[in-house]
UniProtKB/TrEMBL annotation:
Origin: domain of life: Eukaryota
Pfam families the UniProt entry points to: DUF1749 (PF08538)
InterPro entries in alphabetical order: AB_hydrolase_fold, SidJ
The protein's name: YALI0E07513p
Length: 305
């Protein structure tokens, strides 16, 4: 991964135990006092601390701007998502926000004054759920969605519509029978990144209007009004131009423009858009300059908060 922001390895990080056995690691400050503002990074399915490559260059760049980056470990991190839910994720993210904004002083560090949530992949669904579903949660100052894509659309793209319908129907039958906690292996696990997955989470990720279904191409305007239309904080949306989980026949800029049309109150950031040549996680297979583009957009966005 070539980036002008690439810096030293993970060193001198601060470990925050924000809830029970869950931690977040805060990247170090190299320019003086501890960060009083922070970006909280939430990874996607299979992700955990250190797994998304652009986060370290982002932390180095934001440090110079006076912002920190905290990477969260949640119960759903790595393989834990297979038996999880967005509700559980949102509850844990809220615990982290509360800890960072109200409890750091007890340990001798300044509480964070501003918090922006940054989601990658299913981390975007976590943020959408946090902001638009259920109760009103701990206040945040902004949200960044990077590679917010549809698991349902990706599954159809991967295995075909016939097999998708068959597997969703089988999982839904277990849910309807009160067996949603049944852990599915075999072809179900193979479909879902070789991860054992409960019937209820398989349905949430793959059924139309399942709990995770925020970004499917065929969602009607009424659904987007209930999601994007309810966002009340500044929002930056970054779609990867070479995302393998999006049908290449789809016009990605058109998708982004559609989301923009629902966000009210001037909360949509004009920095939003498609990152040319970026892979799903803006990794090594991305076009040169993609990491820099993501970092620069996020840095400009948080500076405006």
């Amino acid at each position: 991964m070539n980036s002008k922001y690439a810096g030293k390895a993970y060193t001198e990080t601060t470990v925050h135990k924000y809830h029970r056995n869950l931690i977040g690691i805060e990247h170090p400050t190299r320019y003086g006092a501890p960060h009083t503002n922070t970006v909280v990074f939430i990874g996607g399915l299979g992700d955990g601390i250190t797994t998304v490559p652009y986060v370290k260059p982002l932390a180095d760049a934001l440090d110079k701007a006076g912002w920190g980056v905290v990477e969260l470990l949640t119960t759903s991190s790595f393989g834990g998502w297979g038996t999880g839910s967005l509700e559980r994720d949102a509850e844990e993210v809220e615990k982290a926000v509360e800890y960072l904004t109200t409890k750091l002083e007890a340990g001798g560090l300044p509480n964070k004054q501003k918090v922006v949530l940054l989601g990658h992949s299913t981390g975007c669904q976590d943020i959408m759920y946090y902001l638009t579903r259920g109760k009103e949660r701990a206040k945040i100052d902004g949200a960044i969605l990077q590679a917010g894509v549809s698991d349902r659309d990706a599954t159809v793209l991967n295995i075909g519509e016939k097999k998708w319908k068959e597997t969703v129907a089988a999982a839904q039958k277990l849910v309807d029978e009160g067996k949603g906690d049944t852990v599915l292996s075999g072809e179900f696990a193979e479909i879902m990144h070789n991860t054992p997955i409960s019937a209820s989470r398989f349905v949430a990720l793959n059924a139309p209007r399942g709990d995770d279904d925020f970004f499917s191409i065929d969602l009607p305007d009424s659904d987007l009004e209930k999601s994007f239309g309810q966002i009340k904080v500044p929002l930056l949306f970054l779609m990867s131009g070479s995302d393998a989980f999006v049908d290449p026949k789809q016009d990605k800029q058109k998708i982004v423009d559609r989301y923009e049309s629902f966000v009210k109150g001037g909360n949509w950031s004009e920095l939003s858009g498609v990152i040319d040549g970026a892979s799903h996680n803006v990794g090594r297979d991305s076009k040169e300059g993609a990491v820099d583009a993501v970092v620069e957009k996020i840095e400009s966005f948080v500076k405006s908060i």
